[in-house]
Queue: 4 jobs
Job 1
Amino acid sequence: MKTFAALLLTLVLLPACHTTPTKNYFVNRGGDLTDILRGHVMWGKGIALKLEVTRLLHLGGGWWDAQAWGLSNREVGGWHEQVGTWGLILGEYHERDVYDIDRVSGSYGWRFAEEGGTSFHQADPDNPLDLLTVRADLMLFVGIDLEVRVGEVIDFVAGIFQFDPANDDNDYTSVIDTP
């Protein structure tokens, strides 16, 4: 029975070894692993106390216009951000002014004063797993912003078998697609 299980596991993993060059495979798995946590410290004008359990459920609020340093979008560095966030079950996180990087998480949440009524906006519409994120913000002139991206855990595990539910394996090159 153990031999059969080992053979079955080998057959399942074999396509992953064949369809992606080894270098891209390990770069993508490393990127997926890095995507699980985001966090940064910030200092400047602001106050915040907020918890998000998924991108859909929020409790608390805050505003800051601050310098920041930390891990975001697979890079460590510094940037400036201005953020407004609120929530009482439903909520919004809005990055108003971010420079020195493209974005931190992106803006997301419920918008009520839109033409056409209430709607939910995703920070990354191409990545449905981004909704499964837990986030905490705490600031009084000095603060911290932490995200545990549970969806990226799923993406990392699926990536071992060459599935990319987060649509973020940009280096993916398939032998099947090449002439």
Note: The chain has three helices and six strands.
Job 2
Amino acid sequence: MMATVKVNGVELLERQLNRMGRPMIRQIVEAGAKAAEKRMAENTEARKHTRNRDMLESIGENEYREFLGGGSVEVYPQGDDRKGVRNATKAYVINYGKGQRPTTKRKKPNKTGDKFITGDESKAEAVVYEAMKAESDRLIAEINNE
């Protein structure tokens, strides 16, 4: 009797991912974060939110957080500008706008933001996904060529 082994694509991918380990998963996540940083900086410049470039130059990733089966990194403007204003707060206000909703006493409309971050979510996700996939493919090819 001869032994046979059948492996489908999902099992093969799962084995490859298991061989990757935490450091490689971190590399994949960080590759996506770099793509997100670049995309956010491009959007910030395209919408001309660069009065003194403090917010633009502060776009970066926060600390890598690891959890069961993966990890995450958030990308947004970090730190404070030269006047002590949080860059993340400035980005939030520019994105969502400021002001109060009209009430019965006040008929002034809400000043809405230009959605330079949230208006680009689907395209940014695609860019991040492609960067992470490219890094994953590179790492899997590296593992298979050992």
Note: Residues 1-7 have pLDDT under 50 and may be disordered.
Job 3
Amino acid sequence: MKRFLFACLCLFSACVVSSTEQREADGSVQHYTEDLFDHPKYLVPVGFSALEKKRYITGLDSSLNYAHIRDDEYKKMEHYVDSENYQRPDRAAQNIKQLDSIEKQRLYYYVLDFSFRIDSFGHKKLKKYHFELDTAFRVVKATDISYGRDTPAARTK
């Protein structure tokens, strides 16, 4: 039972983002939003969702998964890529680039939702945006999800 609780605690602590990172991401998103709307007089933050750390999936990831190689086993990955490059020389440049990105952990990004109130021509509206941030907490992508993610009103800015 103790081992199970310890394993759950370790798994949970790996997924939790520190409060410093959360504050830095919140500030970056709020500043980006103010710039996006040209510093309006009435922009009141309502709330931020929890910051989530995610990872982009590459073509090499599916090959490594099929070969039962985890993304932290660098020697096995290099050996597998060398073998695949010998068999498929047309994919060699792409495999080397993706392997380098995996080893240097360049594939991670953060996701955050931001709700705020804004004055739009005398009408106060509640808006909600979905943000993707890089590891330096710079906004990479902002999507208006005020009316849901699958509606035509959801636009990428």
Note: The helical segments are 2-15, 19-36, 59-66, 74-87, 92-103.
Job 4
Amino acid sequence: MKTFDRNSNYEFMKVIFGATNNILRVLIICNDFPPLNSVGALRPFSWYKWFKEFDAEPIIITKQWKENIELPSDVMKASDSTNVVIEKNDYGIVYRLPVTLIPSEKMYVRFGENKFRIFRRLLTMIYKMMSFVFFSFDKHKQIYEQARKIIRTEKIDVVLISGEPFILFKYGYLLKKEFEIKWVADYRDAWYMNHVTSLKKDLVNRFMIWYEYQFEKKYIKNCDLIITPDPQRKELLTGLHKKKCEIIYNGFEKFLPENSTVHSETDKTLTLTHTGTLTIGQRVEFILQAIVELKNENKIQKGDILLQFIGLEYFNAQLNRVLNFNKDIADFIKTTARLPREKALTINQSSDFLIAFTEENNQTLFAKVYDYIASRRTILVIPGDNGLVSEIVKQTNSGISFNSISDLKKFLLEQIVNKKTGEKTLSFSVDEEKALFYTRKNQSKRLVNFLKQLINSTD
């Protein structure tokens, strides 16, 4: 592939249009972006929102997502336009590309989740494998084509790519080869070392992990910087790829306004809330078993305590895991479909306690923890992990960790009594000075500084 002479092109543009300014222009490639309601969308959106304040201009390439996505099938809805939609405002520029579906996804939309399941999975695997080799199998290829057009015609200082899907890293690899432009790999999750896929031991998944790792090694070989959301991933990725890696935490937007009144199913019900994704490794059974034992010991009855899972109905396997744990505690469990972000934050703030589940073999700072901190509601780390989650909760003085079911049972009974008698449940005064480090604005500032250092380096 012939290398495109970007510098000559820019010199020509300066003559025609005048000299460019010194603002760092960052091309951000991401699949997830609002109105898609996901953690993966909020991360690049925060950069889009805050970069201008730190002398960086973001240019986003993403998809034309629809609003009000409650079920997996909603993600596969056709775009309103088959053309590229361009949005320009005070934050920057967004290029929204039509959503493209592969055959298995079209079958899902047409026939539903339960028909042709095995055949659909086989098709999905084939397309995923072949997408790393042939663009004709890659449903995201329009993103790459749009990136090439932009780099050919505009001043771009660095490309920042947020994965997953990790096929997007292929585009960074190719763009650098063609344009000699620096690119940064944002590992929202690990790829080869992903904590969820690593738990799947069947032959098919083990093969896919090995297969994709061959491409991961190839693509990351020419990246200039890796960023990731927490210290454990930094350690894993640095060891795996021998590349410089920086931590950009997910963070929270701002502290929510004070809300002194806690609303629940009834004024006397102690309400505990978990919001968003529940992973395979998160130990939800810890609190479910505590509630089972309290009920069997006749220490609680319906209306004393409510454990609600906001958005869990989006994830069928994890929903069934919770609902089927023990039918005897059905009266103490509530689940919902995926809700708009603002609604979920309101529920967080109107709960007595917020639940942060940990994993036994993985240290991860789940993004919901930052939203919990922003709500100023007491966080219960279940069970304590003596690691990242317990550490940030302790550092910001935002909650308490439990290492045994008996301690959790004792605590819940005390708080139920407090709620019934009108006394205040346990609360913490968040250390706002330490928590402000984790705001998305501050993390965006840190990222811009890393990008500037990268551009100014001679390596």
Note: The chain is about 40% helix and 15% strand.
